[in-house]
Structure formats: C-alpha cells, structure tokens
Amino acid sequence: MRRLDGIGAALLATLAPIWLVAFGLHVKQAFETGLAQPGFFVALSDGPDAYPRVRGFRLEQSGGADALRIGDRLRRIGDADLRGVGNIRSDAIAIREAGTQGWFPVVLERAGREFSVRAGLVPSPLPWARIPALLGSVLVGVAVLLRAPRSAQPRLVFLAFVLFSLQQTPFHGGPVAQTVASKLIFYVLGPIAPALMLRWLVGFPEEAPRPGRLARALPWTFAAAYAFLRANYFTGGPLPPGLTSSRSCASSSSTSTG
After folding, report:
1. Residues 140-168: what's their mean pLDDT?
2. CA geometry: angle at 119 spanning 254 and 91, to 5°?
3. Who is most buried in 34, 57, 71, 208, counting CB within 10 A?
4. Helices 152-167/6-32 angle, 10° precision
5. Is 37 helix (H, G, I), strand (E, B) or coil?
6. What is the pLDDT of residues 158-202, one digit of tens each?
7. CB–CB of 230/224 below 8 Å?
8. Which long-range contacts (CB under 8 A, 24 or more apart) does 206-213 make?
9. Are 22 and 169 in contact (CB under 8 A)?
10. Higher per-residue pLDDT: 219 or 107
11. Are 11 and 42 contacting, i.e. CB atoms less than 8 angstroms apart?
C-alpha cells in the first residue's frame, strides 16, 4: 500500500465518514422500517407558494395511495400545512406523521371539493438487497485509490464509485431532517455520480489516446438528460407523468400505485 497524495487523502478523509454515516442509517432503516415511504410524490405545479399536486406514483413501491389521483391538490398531511411544500419535504412530513402506525391522514382538494383520506407508507420489496453492492462499490473505490499509482484516474475511480454508492444508499425515515438529507443526496448526486463513472470509462486506460470531443461530452450529456427527467418530480413538467418513472394515473380505487 502506497502513501496517498494530498488530494487522495482529502477525498478519503471527507467522503469515507459521510458514506459510513449514510450506510449505517441505511442498514438501520432497512431492517427497522423496510425503507418505507409514500407510494406517491407531489410537485409544486402551481408555483412555489401554492399547495402541491400529486404528480405521480412510484413504480418501485406499489400501493398505499389508492384514494389519490394525479392532479389532486394536497392541503394537509396530518397537522402539517402543505402550502409551499414540495417533493422532498412532503415525503419527510408523511414519514414523520405515519410514525409506527404506517399510515397518515391527508386533506386534499379535487374538482373544487375537499376530502379527507388516508394514505400509507410502502416498504421496499427487498430493503436489504443493496447492502452487498454498496459495500462492494466502496471497497473497489478505496482499493484503487490506495493501491494504484498516483494519478488522476484512481482519484476519479474512488470519487465515482463512492458517490454512486452514496447516491444509492437511501436512509429516509425518522426525523424530517434525516429524510430530507437522504432525498437531497439522492437527487443532487443523481446526475453527478453516473456521469463521473462514464467520464472514467471514456478515459480508461490512461495510456490510451485522449478521447475525442464527443466521448468527453457524453458523461455531461447524460447528466443533463437525467436532471431534465428528474425535474418532473419537482415541477409541473417538462414531461407528462406517463413518460417518467411513475404511473400516469390511478384510474380507480383499486388501482395499485407504485
């Protein structure tokens, strides 16, 4: 094992503790709550000071929101007023309000009428399944950083693998701040971590000729496309719900949402 240079040591000292905390919380929530979260998500389609509207239903977690419809305006979750509350904080409030009972009351507006309904948290089908892959990803990054010759590529490998593992380490649950932190990491690193992995791939190995302009632009094109699609989770567009990773509608009370 060689001695790290200043940049490598700084990356390791900064990212390793952050990842360890996130991973510990992920394991805790995976076994305690099954990483349960609402089966629907909202967006501030009518502006930042309006009440959020139901934007879609998570494909990966079916059920828990059969009484809701695309376009419903949500006014309250439990005792919390939702004016100006967007995607991330609404999830955090719902998880907090559900507590150990697994469900939460919702006051919504539909077609000019107000309704009170119940919605539930939906656990992940296999909440523990990511743990081996997350560990493996970080171990690869650390091993490359510690053992490869000093150069930009080993640092890029470490950065890409650890950030990707961090982005894929959800730990939502418990206090609002914990869920907000988990969701922010997921959405902020979503376009960055895969783009860094692609950037490493197009430049591997270091001895190869420098990649062309198109190859160098590919990772950041991916990042821009990812961010464009994810914008649907926070605004009323730019794409209709049916073209994003959500169900486009819940046509009846028996329709599963996930």
Report:
1. 90
2. 125
3. 57
4. 20
5. strand
6. 999 999 999 999 999 989 999 999 999 999 999 999 899 888 887
7. no
8. 206/151, 206/152, 206/153
9. yes
10. 107
11. no
**In degrees to the nearest 10, what's the CA dihedral of 10, 12, 16, 18?**
20
Distance between alpha carbon 11 and the CA centroid of its chain, in Å?
Answer: 23
61 Cα distance to chain centroid: 13
Q: Give burial (CB, 10 Å; 0-12/13-18/19+) of 161.
A: buried
Pinpoint the alpha helices (H) of the chain.
6-32, 87-98, 131-147, 152-167, 176-202, 213-230
| β-pairing verdict for 73-77 and 80-81 | antiparallel
Q: Residue 223 in 3-state DSSP? A: helix
- Amino acid 144 reads V
Look at the block and give the residue holding tokens 């649950």: 173
Q: What is the pLDDT of residues 207-240, one digit of tens each?
A: 667 777 888 888 889 888 888 878 777 876 666 6
Residue 87: phi and psi, rounded to 5, are: -55, -55
Question: In the CATH scheme, what is the code of domain 37-126?
Answer: 2.30.42.10
97 or 3: which carries more pLDDT confidence? 97
CB 97 within 8 A of CB 80: yes
Rounded Cα distance, 246 and 256, in Å: 12
Domain ranges of the chain: 6-30+127-233, 37-126
Q: Are 12 and 155 a contacting pair, CB within 8 Å? A: no
